[in-house]
Structures are given as structure tokens and as C-alpha cells.
């Protein structure tokens, strides 16, 4: 029983080591995937800088940790009502329903 437990631990640690090496690349892929959203919220330069910092493995983690407590380091661009672009309401068209 001891040998199978030791082999299981060895295999588990090997899997963990491989996964930990891929984590920076997963973060970079997520930053690239959300780049368009950041550009819409922060403008072209602000969104690209924010996404670029997020794509760098340890810098992005540090930036997101700081933003967790302080808010955005790169502020959103102002919307039409003076609030941030994310806070601006979207224009919706309402279709008329059946009348009674």
C-alpha cells in the first residue's frame, strides 16, 4: 500500500508542476480575449495598456491584485452623461406588445 501511495503522490505532484507552468499562458490568453471589452470601456490607448499589462504573467497578477483593493489603475473613459463608459445605459428599442 505504501508504494501505490508514493506513486500516486509522485504522479499528482508531476501534474501540479505541469499545470503551474501553463498558468501564465492561460492568463495571457484571457487578457487577449478581453482586450476588446477593455478598449470599449477605457478607450484605445487605455484599453491596450491595461490589456498589455494583464497579458504579462506576473505583472498582470500584481496589477489585478492592486485593483482588487484600489479600483481601476487606468480609469474608464467618460460616457455621454459624464459617468464611466461602463455606467452609461445602452439604447434599447422596445417592441410594442399586444394591446388589450
* Quaternary organization: single chain
Number of helices: 4
Tally of strands: 0
Structural class, from secondary structure content? mainly alpha
Helix content, binned percent? 55-70%
The mean pLDDT is: 81
- The termini sit apart by 76 Å
Spatial extent as radius of gyration: 22 Å
Uncertain segments of ≥5 residues (pLDDT<50)? none
- Morphology: elongated
Strand share of the residues? under 5%
Helix and strand pattern: HHHH
Biggest sheet descriptor: none
What is the compact description of this entry?
The chain has 4 helices and no strands. The chain has 100 residues and is mainly alpha-helical.
Folded structure, characterized:
By secondary structure, this protein is mainly α. It has a domain at 24-72. It is 66% helix and 0% strand. It is built from four helices and no strands. It has helices at residues 2-33, 35-42, 44-55, 57-70. Helix 2 packs antiparallel against helix 3. The longest helix is centred in the N-terminal third of the chain and has 32 residues, at 2-33.
Main attributes of the structure:
single chain; 100 residues; mainly alpha; 4 helices; elongated
Topology:
Blueprint: H1 2-33, H2 35-42, H3 44-55, H4 57-70
Helix pairs in contact: 1-3, 2-3, 3-4
Amino acid at each position: 500500500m505504501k508504494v501505490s501511495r508514493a506513486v500516486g503522490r509522485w504522479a499528482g505532484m508531476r501534474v501540479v508542476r505541469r499545470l503551474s507552468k501553463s498558468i501564465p499562458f492561460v492568463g495571457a490568453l484571457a487578457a487577449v480575449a478581453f482586450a476588446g471589452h477593455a478598449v470599449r470601456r477605457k478607450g484605445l490607448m487605455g484599453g491596450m495598456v491595461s490589456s498589455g499589462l494583464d497579458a504579462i504573467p506576473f505583472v498582470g497578477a500584481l496589477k489585478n491584485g492592486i485593483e482588487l483593493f484600489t479600483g481601476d489603475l487606468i480609469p474608464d473613459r467618460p460616457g455621454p452623461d459624464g459617468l464611466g463608459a461602463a455606467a452609461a445605459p445602452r439604447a434599447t428599442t422596445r417592441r410594442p406588445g399586444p394591446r388589450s
